[in-house]
Each structure stands twice: as C-alpha cells, then as structure tokens.
Design a protein that fits this description.
The chain is of the alpha+beta class and 302 residues long. 38% of the residues lie in helices and 26% in strands. The two termini are 23 Å apart.
Length: 302
C-alpha cells in the first residue's frame, strides 16, 4: 500500500485536467505508436499550460518545480470512455491527467505526496457528476477554494478563516457562563451535532453566525472575482470543514447583494489515501509509466 502524505496548497499544487488532441487521420485505428505520441503530446501540453500557475502559487521559478507525480485518470475517444484505446478510430483523443508538483525543500521520495483539497474536489466531482462547482475546505486557520470546471480541477484561492475563529468568538463571549476552553469546546461540539436545547441553540447561533460572516464574505467575493456569479446565477458550492459546524449552515440561504446563496455538503467519504491506492496500480499503469518518463524530460531535476 502506498503511503500518502497530504500537503497544504502552499507546499504542493495538484491539478486535474482533460487534454484533447485532434487526430489527423480519424478513420485510422489507433496504434501503439500513435498512443505513445499522443500521451507525449498531452503531457507536454498539460505541463506547458499549468507550470506557470504552479510556480506562481508556490512562489518559485518554473525551473525550481519538483515533480511529485503525474497520473492518467481516464482516456476517451470522441467522448467515449475506453480502457485500452488501441484499435479504436476517432477524431478526438482525450486523456485525463493529474499532475502534482512541489517546491524545493519538500521531500518527494518517501511515498505519494498530494495536495489534498484538489484531490478531494476531484473525488467529489466524480461521485456526484459535478460539471461546474466550487469545493471549499476550512481547516483550523484558513479556508481554501477549489474550482471544478468540466473536469478541470485546481486550487483557486484561499484566505484566513478557520476553526480557531469560531473558537475565539466563543471564548470571547463564553456564552455568559465563564467556561474554560476545553469545556467550551465540548459544548460547542454538542451544539454542532444538534445535541442541545432549542433555547441554548439560539444562544450559540448568535455567536457562531457572527463569526461565520467573514467566511461567507470571503468565499463569495473570491467566487465572484472568477466569474462564478455570472448572469446573477447562484454558484454550486460544497463546503467541507475539517471541524464540526451546525447542520443549519446547509439549510440557510445567505444574502449576497441581490442574490441569495447556499452551501451544500457531501455525505460521501472523500478518502484521498483510498483513492490513490485504488488507482496506484490500476488499468492505466503502463500509460502512467509512459507519462512519468515523458514529463521527466521536461523536468530533468525531478
């Protein structure tokens, strides 16, 4: 079993994207030589498209990027999924690729390194058949937003807000009870799980949603800045915090200008380690090896 280490978007960039190549002779059956050439073209095209973005996000020069992994997630011929494309004819060859790069100083030899948020966004998109959506993760200190756009999945932006902001708001308010931090956390968890009286829930709601407003504003401004609210349509946003939040977060509609928006949650397990290990020696193993060889020509220091 492959050991998987999840990294923060400041340490690693994982991008999923389909790459399409138009064939010169669409009526000819695809040969092993054709397949090798198309994979090579796709890897070059993919890396050429994303290396500048990856370097900028990691704050390094392009030549300082370090390859963690490149992986094939699917192959299509004229839009139809195929396991082995050899022998198929068609005009458009499409390969789904996943690339993970890190910056110098991050160990890349001990197991599989991945930027976890992008990978969970990819898993969610496949489980739910999402074509266009935003996947939002909040940890203890920050929130990160990932875009899902017709198979293209990548980290979009992030801002400072997380579980500590909720904890800090509760600590400052102390709910008028003078409770210490540990006891306050236990009470908050009971509140988030719905295990408190209606009167007490309303009391904590007041503190929680005041602390939650910077999250709402941060997410919606970032989504708006990338055109996620074009034509006044409400974006599809999945919120997956790494700490408990009340179920009412997913029932409420939040105002944003003249629009009202809501967050969805996923009840599906987004198991990065399971996903990586299930695909580590999968049906595209030989193509993965080819893709790795090709990209190492482009990243000789990896």
């Amino acid at each position: 079993m492959t050991r998987v280490t999840e990294l923060h978007p400041e340490q690693a960039v994982t991008i999923f994207s389909p790459v399409r190549i138009t064939r010169d002779h669409p009526t000819h059956a695809l040969t092993p030589v054709d397949l090798e050439n198309y994979i090579s073209q796709a890897v070059w095209k993919f890396f050429d498209q994303c290396r500048g973005e990856a370097a900028e996000k990691l704050g390094v020069r392009e030549m300082e990027l370090k390859l963690s992994d490149i992986r094939i997630t699917g192959v299509r011929m004229d839009g139809h999924q195929v396991i082995n494309p050899i022998g198929f004819a068609g005009r458009e060859f499409e390969v789904g690729l996943s690339l993970t790069v890190t910056k110098q100083g991050v160990e890349t030899t001990n197991g599989y390194l991945v930027e976890g948020g992008s990978t969970r966004a990819y898993i969610l998109s496949k489980l739910l058949g999402l074509e266009r959506a935003f996947f939002i993760e909040s940890g203890n200190v920050d929130t990160n937003i990932f875009s899902i756009n017709n198979g293209d999945i990548r980290h979009l932006s992030g801002f400072s807000w997380g579980g500590r902001d909720v904890a800090g708001a509760l600590q400052n308010d102390a709910l008028g009870l003078g409770l210490d931090g540990d006891l306050l956390q236990k009470i908050y968890h009971k509140y988030a799980w719905g295990d408190v009286s209606e009167k007490f829930r309303r009391r904590v709601d007041r503190v929680f949603y005041k602390a939650f407003m910077p999250f709402i504003n941060g997410v919606l401004l970032n989504v708006k800045n990338v055109g996620g609210m074009r034509l006044g349509s409400s974006p599809v946003m999945y919120f997956c915090p790494q700490f408990p939040v009340p179920a009412s977060v997913y029932r409420r509609c939040f105002p944003f200008g003249a629009m009202r928006v809501k967050f969805f949650r996923s009840d599906e397990p987004l198991d990065v380690e399971g996903f990586i290990n299930e695909n580590a020696c999968g049906i595209y193993e030989e193509l993965n090896e080819l893709a790795v060889r090709r990209i190492k020509w482009l990243m000789p220091n990896s």
